[in-house]
Every structure is written in structure tokens, then in C-alpha cells.
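Mods, move this if it's the wrong board.
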Amino acid sequence: MSSSSRSRWWTTVRDREHGASLVEFTIVSTLLFMLVFGIVEFGLAFRDRLTVSNATQGAVRVGSALASSDESDFEVLRALEQSLSTLPNSGLGIVRHVDIYLANGSGNPSSGCPGSGCNRYAYQPGATPTCDWNPCPDPSAPSYGGSWLPDGRDDELPDLDVMGVRLTFAHDWITGGLVPLPNVRCDGSAGANCWADTAIMRVEPQVFGT
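Not the wrong board. C-alpha cells:
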């Protein structure tokens, strides 16, 4: 084989190897980018869910301590507002509503929500001067989201009520479809799904009996 033929042969080999390397890099880089974006997506989703979980845990402790006080629902919602302030835009567009309810043995509302044992409050920042929820159970002019009124809660031993706080929220994936995950719309439309976090706790006794 002449030197010119060998040169052309090596050039052809190098070109083929270069083309194969480009194809391999394209495949690997695509998978790598999807992996990185997936980590970011799930990390942000976990952050939001952890924030919501901490919010519901703190709120139900407030509700348990206040039990049948007129300020019970109002202070539960205020506790939620403070915790949700760490979410993007203070949770606007993420948080949908919160249910404060009488829990049954499995931790669910005893009569469904909304229902006779459940109060539902929609998250609407700026809805009223005193809180970001509609209706607002401000003790000065309470407007409850159901019929489970604080003064009807059993805070006397031994039959203490169990309070549940369930916060329902949405989540949009930031990569806009690059990672093939459907947004959690939670907008009430047909087929829309929701995420929710629930915390339950027995109310603290205010009356100890005889």
C-alpha cells in the first residue's frame, strides 16, 4: 500500500471514529442532562413537600393545644401562613385549601370533607385584612368553612376528639416537559390530581372531669 493510500485510509478511519464519538456523546449527554434535571426536579418537589409537612405538623399542634377555643381554627391557619411563607411566592399558586376536621380511627374525616365534621378553608392571600384564607375564622367575626365549630369539640377526658389538618397543594415541574412528568394541577378540572399532607393529633384536655 502506497503512502498516499495509507494516508487516505487513516483519514477515513479517523472520520468514522469521530462520527461514532459524536453519536456516543449525544446519547450519553442526553441521558446525563435528563438525570441532572430529574435530580433538580425531585429535589425541589421534596423541598415543597417537606415544607408542607412541617407546616401541617406545626398547625395541628396549635389546634390540639387550643382545642375548643374560639381562636382554634384561626390560629391553625395563622401557623400555616407562617410556615408557607418559605414556599415560592408564599405558596400562591401551590396551596389550594386546608381541611380542619374530626378524624376517625384511620385518620380521615369522620364524615367526608367538606362535611359535618370538617371545615375547609381556601388559600387566598389578601382575601381579608386578618388572614389569607376564605372564609376567615377571625374570632372577632368568625366565618367557618363548615359546621365543626370549636365549641363543639370534645376536650374532656376520657373521650377526646382527634383533630386532623390536611393541606392540599399543586406542583409544576420546572423543566416544562423535559423530564416526562405531568404537572400536579389540582385545579378542580376533570382528571386533575392533587398532592396532600395530613397531620393528626388528639386534642389536649381542657376539662379533666371528676
